[in-house]
Fold these 4 entries.
Entry 1:
Amino acid sequence: MTLKECYELIGADYNDVIIRLGGEDRVLRFIPKLIADSSFNDLIKAFADEDWEAAFRASHTMKGNYANFGLTKLQTSSSELCEMLRPCVFNPEAAAQLEIVKKDYADAMDALSKLG
Amino acid sequence: MNANGTKDRILIVDDSELNRSILSDILCEKFDIVEAADGLEAVNYLEQHPTEVSMVLLDLIMPVMDGMSVLKVMNQNNMIKTIPVVVISADQRAESVEQAYKLGATDFIFRPFDSFMVYRRVINTIMLYSKQKRLEDMVTEQIYERSKNSRMLVSVLAHIVEFRNGESSAHCLNINTITEKLLNALLSRPNNYNIPRADVPVICTASSLHDIGKIAIPESILNKPGKLTPEEFEVIKTHSMEGAKILNAVPFSKDEPLIRYAYEIARWHHERYDGRGYPDRLEGDKIPIAAQVVSIADVYDALTSTRCYKPAYSHEQALTMIRNGECGTFNPLLMECLEEIAPSLREELGKDAALFEQSSRDLDTIADELFSNPDLASSNRSLHLLETEREKFSFFWENTKDIFFEYNAETSVLSFSKAAAYLVDGGSMVVDPLKPGFLDDRFNSIVALELDKVLTHTSYEYTDFKDEVEWNGVTYRIEGKTVWDYEASEPVMTSIYGYARRITKTGAMI
């Protein structure tokens, strides 16, 4: 799968990321790092630990990262989660939103890992 | 590349490794990159390398210490004035942006960022700051030159008067020192005089001209040994008015603070607080405060110096005479100041430290001028560093048990650390040690001989030297370094420094 195909598959903005990061080369070089990035695991762990401050920070990092890579769908869901967690207290809405983020994350990672 | 031909260093502060590496990838070709994973790491790095970072790229939301706290610390230690901070954050809320700008951030880049924009903004920010820094350096340099030149001219004038007067040339320096101490003591207590701190060095310089009117007094009266007749004394008394006339006749710059203060001081430094002085019999605070201060300084120094008509009194005798009103009445507030500075006066005056004194006062003056100017204040951290280094240096110089020496090629002064004082008779400073006829069997001579050798053989390619010399049956190892100014077309040696240490016959250090 090419980067363009992959981005179309997961509802991401290919043209935007190519322009902003200055070419496919840089995007491709950093995607393995994006896959290896720990913020998603940090988020899951923070929910398990009920550490809402850490959960906010993790969602904030995710939102920024996905925005940078033009992963529109995942960025939107993690951004919404981030705003719900901003007060750093438990929020039942956030727990529901987490499930959406999990699904978008799985889809995105699945497609990105199939890049040729 | 910056002016030194090295890459500017950028500190990237972000808790996300992914972000740091993307930013680093964008910038590493042009810049030297250092990364910090949270605010605390960043602050530590900045504290340890205060002059090496050209710019900070700062994330806001981070564990341990967040971006706003980094900005707050940089405000406390003033680094925000010299190191530009560009915030990179996905946090687009107006209150965050506003707070970051209020805390001194130079720019704000929102995420998702555009690599080209990041690159351009970083370059522009660094260029802007280095341009400003260069301008500040030029201004500092000019302030320094200007104040140095005017002080030099003033001291030439003052010395002409002193020379004719048969007074020691230390008189002006002493008056300078006492005036400065009195003014600082006065400024540190509540008072109604509204003296701007920046005027202190100006008043000190102006104090040198207090007796300039004596140029108009016949030498036969000025230098008459023994008692003056009442008529002769009346002639002497005209010197304050004569001085004022001279200064008033200065065709331009009458509004310059230096000339204004010099006028006040020359005309009224013999007025007394109770109205019994001369020439105008002014009373109380009708006498300008600068003149009041210098009148005390003048009286104290006159009492403690030898004059053609009197011996020198001791510090204690002089103080007692002033307290008893034997030299007229002074402002009670200034008397308090005099009592406060009295212990330091005894220590400081008469010390043969005039050379060091003057140069350190030069530095203080620049510092004062700089700090009094809000635009330049604190922005010039290098000056702070210089001050700190100077203080550190003099502390070690005074307290080390080793024999260190330094030869300044520009002034031809060879100085020794305090520990060497017992070996180097005649004080810890030697002027022109290399002139013929200076060399004898004293310890400073063996150092001077060594310097002579170094000066003949050294070149900027070999800055280190090492030798063993014998003196009074003891072997000393002398080791040192030559310092060169590479700015000139041909490198010029500016100073030599090093140490001398006793060693045993086998070469072990003692």
Entry 2:
Amino acid sequence: MKKSNLLTRREFLKLAGGSAAGLAGLQFLQHLPPLVQKAMASAPVGAGTHRWAMVIDQAKCTGCGYCTKACKAHNDVAPEIAWNRVIYAGKVKDKDVFIARPCMQCQHAPCVEVCPVGASYYRADGIVMMDYDKCIGCRYCEVACPYGARAFNWEAFTGPNPEVPEWGQPEVPRRPRGVVEKCSLCFHRIDRGLAAGQTPGVDPDATPACVVACPVGARKFGDLNDPESEVSKLLANNPSYRLREDLGTGPRVYYLPAREGASA
Amino acid sequence: MSAKIKLPRFTLFRAWLAVLAVAMAAGLAAAWQVFTRGLVVTNLTDLVPWGLWITIDLSAIAVSAGAFFLCAAVYLLGLKRYQPLARTATFIGLIGYSMAVLCLMLDIGRPDRFWHALVFWNPHSVLWEVTMCVTLYFMVLVMEAAPLFGQAEWLRRRRPRLAALLASVHHFAPVFAVLGLGLSLLHQSSLGATYGVLKARPIWFRPDLSVLFIVSAVAGGLSLTVLASMLSAAFSRRMRVDDSLLDSVAKFIGWVLVGYLYFRFWDAFAMTYTYQPGRTEGLELLTGGALSFNFWAGEIFIGAVLPAFILLNPRWRGNRLFRMAALACVVGGVVAYRWDINMAGQLVLLTYVPQELAVRYTSYVPSLVEFAAGAGVIAYGLMAFTLGVRYLNVVHHAPLSEPEPAGQPTPEPAGAA
């Protein structure tokens, strides 16, 4: 063969080997020093001792919206933003049915995957967290979330919170203008409760505000790693579903569908 | 000053600069609103969080693609005769990327944290990769454009040492061409993938977007380079262009458009099979809904089919007016495509309520502040190019005097006198 600018077999192999080495190098990103890893993203999910989940019983939900108000007060959310929404979802036997929609705390959260700065990340117990000090406000997560669970702070929230004090007292700082915010599963209540020896889902102080506020007990919260927790039992003994399961996001919020015969 | 003869021409030039300056002032006023009051002054919402500025950002990056493509052609493929065009394209690229940066600074909620992606890495994010590539490529463009400044007559007279240093960067042009090629191929297509990876938006969620973004960017980037060169030559007698060079690139653009239309056709056609919630409605929005004029006229017919016919017909292409019109159409078509892509996925929302994957429609019309700021960014780009043409000689096809110099900066033919 004429030795032209065509690659020889040896050169080709070298090139291929080099590319393979490059790819292998990418794999090394997984094994960077812990500090870098920490800066990069999230703790391995499932490594924690807890696996939090929320169960919402649509047969009980009356659409009163108390959960939304309690959420807004405890998390000091601006009036034009709602971390938790209650949406009308049709009728079952003349009875109105609603879907209460907090953040789904997805196992494979599109928002975490797309965030360019790692401001959205997983905690070991599965909570999808927001680092408001990292967020640059690009709103890619908003576009990526299939559940519309994220809201951008288009302006600063400076005035009084209309839901305070009637629905509770703020427990976390207000987010600044220009960052995206979302439901945090009241991680601060969970953490504070655990530190005080309480059981989230059982002790109200250690349980998300929306669950505590629900007047009909439609919301349950607890640890799926504990087979005796109420959520574990509910899911074991009832048919349940999650929103847009076809997307493979793996929500940690489960719904018990409204059904005939079940009472409110 | 020999003002008597030059006065009329100077007036036109100054009038042009004055118009741009007014637009830039309006843009600055709008930017002041954005930075002091926040993004509440826009018409963006949580349903449509990406609007006009993102379109300008994407378009500015797309029409800057001539830089990497021509530099690769000249320094890697050895097509040396296109070197003068690569020079123009590099300067356009530098401006285009700085326009994109300006748009992003307006658009992100926390411009004070623009550097976060460089420090807090999420290698899983396409947008992170885009940010890194754009940042690195911007540096490459600065290095590639350094000789332009080093060769400028006024700098060589005042700061000969600095000018020589800047001009000497030219020796590394092949290295920068390799870097530029890699970085550009990555992020130009990743900008398509930025949309393409989102499951939540069915009309976006497809792999072809990356391919369409890079192909349309090559067409748009080359078009703007040739168009800007021709316009400069048309408006100033001092600019000399080699029309055979522009003609052959224009022909090449014609073929790129044919390739683009091929991909675009199958991309759209594949989406029409079987109803898929969200995606089908998004396609309907493009072909028969609110975006249909922009799609059929702006994107497909005037933006690609018509210019492909003109640019592939030697007689039509030979007519400079026709050629310039066709190139302008291509640039407009690329902008229309970016707008359509960005909008189609956001105006159609898929609900998550079970048993009822209903589609909701929303709308978006940019606010006055968005228009003013966008106009300011575009005016900045035009102003920078105009000044570049005048003081840096970025459009200059006269005797190719930059073949591998040995040590000393090559004297640029004194076109600016």
Entry 3:
Amino acid sequence: MVSLAEPVPLIIAPSRGYWASVGQRLLRDKVTMVCVVILLTIILAAIFAPYLGLADPYRGSIIRRLRPIGTPGYLLGTDEQGRDMLARLIYGGRLSLFIGLLPVFNAFVIGSLLGITAGFVGGKVNAAIMRTSDVFLAFPSVLLAVAISGALGAGILNSIVSLTIVFVPPIARIAESVTTQVRSLDFVDAARASGASSWTIIRVHILNNVLGPIFVYATSLISVSMILGAGLSFLGLGTKPPEPEWGLMLNTLRTAIYVQPWIAALPGAMIFMVSIGFNLVSDGLRSAMDVRR
Amino acid sequence: MSAELLAPLPDVGGPAQPLLEIRNLTKHFPIKGGMLNRTVARVNAVDGVTFDVAKGETLGIVGESGCGKSTTARLLIRLIEPDQGEVRFDGQTVGTDISVAELRRGVQMVFQDSFASLNPRLTIEDSIAFGPRVRGVANTDAVNKAHDLLRRVGMAPEQYARRYPHELSGGQRQRVNIARALALAPRLLILDEPVSALDKSVEAQVLNLLVDLKASLGLTYIFVSHDLNVVQYISDRVLVMYLGRVAEIGPVESIYTDARHPYTRALLSAMPSMDPDRRTQEAPIAGDPPNPINPPSGCLFHTRCPFAEAVCKTTAPALAPVGESHNAACHMEIAGSGHSRAARA
Amino acid sequence: MTATHRPLVEVKDLHVRFRGERNVHAVNGVDFALDRGEVLGILGESGSGKSVTLKALLRLLPEKRTVISGQIRVGNEDVLALEPEALADFRGKTASMIFQEPMLALDPVYTIGWQIAEAVERHEKCGRDAARQRALEMLERVRIPSPARRLDAYPHEMSGGMRQRAMIALALACKPQVLLADEPTTALDATVQIQILLLLRELQRELGMAAIFVTHDIGVAVEVSDRIAVMYAGRIVETGKVADIVRRPSHPYTRGLLASTVHGAMRGKRLDAIPGAPPSLNEAPSGCSFAPRCKEVLPECSQSLPQAVTVSPAHLSRCVRSTPVTA
């Protein structure tokens, strides 16, 4: 085949895939990388807690209650029942992170499904989905979580269900607006003009461009989910004692705040660190993904 | 199977049969508003447009923003459903004789915004191969076809096939869009302002490419543009649109040297002169194009027309022959219309 | 006023570099001068540095990301040395600007009349009524129909052409000495574009202003300019009277641009397109930036920046092949 047009000059820069270039930018972002390392440490520690040679997080001792931070054998002291704080904080990460991540993941799947459907189909389907989600959005998220949890009864599973319900509407809203935006771009029309089915268009052209922004938004909800989950436990609607969980620990240590304020603050510090961490990673991800043009 | 799908469509009606016949094409967009999202107004985006496109010709469609030229382009390939009207492709009526999917095998489109019309997450190769793939062509065949087309539009596949749209210049992206449109071996290419966003030096490259492709592949073009210079260069016939209706249609020489509709004449004399000794001294018409939401009565142009008379305000003129395959919708050209400049019936 | 000839606007060796993830050398040594009442058209493609040059004249570039060097003098002001307070006085009063998209340049939450009166009040220290009176006069001047009613209109209530007229009224309300126009008609329809061009030409003559017109459209530049400067890759490659540029272009880029500008007479002929695309400007040019695309390239083209050669009176070209006029 003979080229019919004038030669076009070479581009020298090597071509990378989109996600490869996002990764590259993330690696160069120091703040995000520090947060990723801290979060990974906490998550891995929680997963591999039984192999870390920690004290039993459930075994208390009446005589060793509320030892201060730095006590030999109890690096971070002990709680109001004499249980090792370090062990409880690390074990507590298991439930707290579970309650923080799972509802967001569930809501990401359900909300994206609803939002992308609403955005792509439009019309009455859109109105039905979006108006329903507006009803949920009208309530403050704390109130909604407490109300649903209260109605379902206390328990980890129920608090996960209630948090999922809380996060579906905001994710659906973002998914709908991003989808509507992408759907109006010419490349979707071009795909329709080439005879592709709606399903193929969604799979190849919509999901590809829409899931990234929704994912970024969802990561920013992890911190909210952690705080709300901790709040539910604090109110007695989530985890039950003696399970180690940061929100619940914060509640039970409340009485010790005048005796050992630093120890009482530790679970709060964990919640704070992890939420800030997820928020900063979410920010970093957002700016790294903005490589267009 | 795959080879068959990529083969050019056969010529059904012979050379005398127009490739595309448009009859009374109409699209009104409702304007929603108020509490209950009711229709409060309508935009007559395209209003009873009728024209033919002969095999192998280039039909230029010109007009100002809001005249419905881009809507017409999208109606032709059914990206928008028309309210009324009939489209016949090579003598076969779309909807009865052939399906929309079959129409889209024969008609493809290139959009103005070269960036928005490529999926930023797909490589160039995947974007071009997408159409053949969804039509059931085997993966390797589709990729080979994509490389072949890249070569045809002057981009070495070894260098560009695996690149992403944001790594290319505007001109290169538009070449990719052209390659993508050609991937299904269409017979008619609708080009919607394909060079408007490009720099002049790049515009010339793309125009040359379009002329070459048309000759080597035996294509037919509908070239939508607001740039009268470009339309004059590339078109065989020109259709002038104003507020959703055809104002004038005819061979390019007649339109540019002997325009009969006052709007066409105004458009032509609004072109900058390129001659410092003969600068434009007076604007051909005053005011902005009227809002298509509340179009004027009668002849849509009467609010800006220097020759408007009573009849123009009340009656919409039909397209009337004014020369060899040259028609204009103006009361001055219709004998007995009641306009003082028209011939008596 | 001194007796010696001193142009109204003088730009010497202007360099603009944008810092960021990548450096962009947008303007690489631009010199020009503009007399009172003169209209200069700056012609170039996207990325040629024409808009950046114009914005530098009003110091509208984001200060933190831009490195500007060289000299810009407008009237008696050394623009690059102006303090914030003086700069605010300078903008609108000595030099003012109109943009491609009036919808973005006009404030959507205030009426046209309010915005013009506000500018007049600020610069002329006059009362509200006098300022409003001036606003009305300006709307009449730019020939907006029923101006008294339009004073209280919001930008979104006007059509594109009317908005552009309103923006011109706003820019000219304080009788600036220089009007800077950044592609003022590019977003407009053809029949409206010519109206705006004629209006600008007329107002420029009436008010005796100097004007700089940035455009990518040769036709527009020819309609309004006395002189044209052709920019490529952040440098002025050729400058001269309109007739010289259009009829006797000397620089290969100008000739290429004219040859690739489509017009009716070219029907059926192959367009003589310039191959390739403009350079990326990540580094400051060390030779002629057009050399990679030039059909008449010589080995010395890429060795040093070509000097300006006077090819005919008041007609300069930066090309090693240009032959100086024999005086």
Entry 4:
Amino acid sequence: MNKTLETRLHDSLVEIIRKTSAELPDDVFKAIEEGRQAEQAGSSAAYAMNIICDNVDIAKRKSQPLCQDTGTVLFYIHFPMKTDYEKLQKLIKKAVVTATKKGYLRQNSVDSITGKNSGNNIGPGAPVIHAEPWKKDHFEIKLMLKGGGCENVGAQYSLPDSRVGAGRDLKGVEKCILDAVQNAQGKGCGPGILGVAVGGDRGTGYSASKEQFLRKLGDRNRNPELSALEERITREANELGIGPMGFGGKTTLLATKITALNRVPASFFVSVSYMCWAFRRQGAKVSNKGEIQKWLY
Amino acid sequence: MAVLEREGGAIQLTAPFTEEKVRSLKVGDMVEITGLLLTGRDAVHKWLHDGNEPSVKEVDLKNSIIYHCGPVMMKKGKNWVATAAGPTTSIREEPYQAGIIEKFGLKAVIGKGGMGEKTREACQKFGCVYLHAVGGAAQVLAERIRAVEGVYGLETFGSPEAIWKLRVEKFPVVVTIDAHGNSLHKEVEASSSSKLGEIVGKIGK
């Protein structure tokens, strides 16, 4: 990597972080707007949805974080084969430090043993970087900022689970997911979006459930059975009446996204990740010269 | 009962609150607060619970309002500016909150997601309310901060966990636990739980 490419890539990474932190993607805003219209005028639920929409406008206008919890910083990257990956990792970390100094990210990385905040969002496991080389000659850089409130309400079930009456089939899966929605109320900032992985092991299950958030909210699952389950769960969750912020109301979930991984015969995990309404994910096609060519969401 | 002043549907309250004002609030009331809020979250709650406290000269917790918030703070010249300041999840402070309400006579706790039985009982007994700010609405809420009047424990707790003194104007919240033993969280949890039972019954075995 020459100096010019390094500088451009660094600046593009900072811009991706800025946009992710300050701007809600269009597909998410559309779903929120629909949710706002569904709530009864004058209710606490409508009050919350109005504040949410105002917040989206202000954050974008001021280029400031939508939510003060700028969350876990998760990169999903594809890079051209010939890229010096070690250098790329260093650039990503440098961009995270710059974005923290500029206030796009809060000082959000704490040493779990000493309790000390690193002050720059760098430390063991931070930021999270998933990166794979590919044969194309440009970069694809996706970023998710996932707040702690919604991360804390994620749940993993090992079927059969007698607490929720869930056997090892899709009906059992459905019961686990609805249980997770019930338990998340108030804690994860609703209306929320669910990412679910059926199968895998404990690690891959949670990872795959998070990756579901890279899908656009309006897309359709290619697996017809999972597609039907996604729609049914969103509808059933909204019947629970938990509503925005748990104030009671019609919009509890904006969408559900489910994937399946193979499992070993002895295990049957259902991993549920919850994303708050402040759904910060963005992505860009970045040229091999380091310039942003296109936004992906 | 105190007479509550309203503007555009929201009750206007100026801090510090009197117990009479606090007792006149009901679950579901939309409120706008003007006055001083003190931020405090996980580290501060544990620290206070362990028997520590700041000197009154540094931070006067008596009759105050605690806001569960870890803001993004930037220094502009000599002054601090909060550039994002929404609530954090309150339930993590449940083991500590009731004792702190009692010890310092807190008049209100602001956060998100609601709190449990111990806090609900403390609100009723000591005349405090739990006020729910809209989670994630960091910009709307930061705009209502007129001045940052100081900070305590910046070195010890780190920026998100420190006690920031925030002077706010028309800070929007909803009463979800009042001083009469009512909790919106308890109500919604009960009704959604019974609805979940029905749905699970329909899914069948």
